[in-house]
Description:
The protein has 244 residues and is an alpha+beta fold. The chain folds into two domains: 3-79, Arc Repressor Mutant, subunit A; 89-239, 3-Layer(aba) Sandwich (Chorismate lyase), CATH 3.40.1410.10. It is built from nine helices and ten strands. Strand 8 (209-219) and strand 9 (224-233) form a beta hairpin. Helix 2 (16-29) packs across helix 4 (53-65). The radius of gyration is 22 Å and the shape is elongated. The mean pLDDT is 88. This is GntR family transcriptional regulator. One of its GO terms (molecular function) is DNA binding. Pfam families: GntR, UTRA. Residues 14-82 form the HTH gntR-type domain.
Amino acid sequence: MSDELATTYKRSRMPLYLQVAAVLRRRIEEGYWRPGQKISTLEELEEEFHVARVTVRQAVDLLQKEGLVDRQQGRGTFVTDKKINRRWLHLATSWSSLVSTIRSNVPHFIDPAGAPNRPRLASGEGRPAESYEFLRSLQFQAKTPYAIANVYVAKQIYDRAADRFRKETALSVVSTLDDVSIARARQTLVLDSADPETARLLEIPLNAPIAIAHCVVIDDEDMAVYVGDIVYRGDCVKLDIDLL
Length: 244
């Protein structure tokens, strides 16, 4: 293994097979290998990436699971002709688009045990409510979990529509309550890697890329009525911003 390549591998907390899979996936998406074309052999990939055969095999197995390649006994591995829109989740960049994209989502609530009683608020994120209701749920696309929603709703707001908060996405409920006057809302996005619990819930490998959208909604009395951290699988997220 070259010193430069070894340093690159060690710099990442991501498992080696995921790093190799990321390179192969990008080649397929950019047309380096076209649909129906045979990709490099395991031996060639092993030599190119300077990793063990089992690492290359795991990478190719992952791409096959994603539907990007098809392994044919005795012939090799071929790029499929089925176009897969992996980056289907467009993160909203405005209040109206955010609310509209989640309005029809159906949360699958899971055990919220172990969460702090109140969210941590940074400077500029309003003052805390007296108490909060914590909600944790999963979001699914074609039976595959793609997001974990960890949400705090001010208790006084939650009590006004408790039945709806247990059936709908919390932010969509907050946005429709007539007696809640929203003064400010902000969302920040950070990139991270999956810890054991996140990997288990989203059915992704440990240390796989994730995106965390932190959203805070503040009322006209400067109280943070909604605080949400939505954890997305990194392989489905796309951020598209109109600059003009």
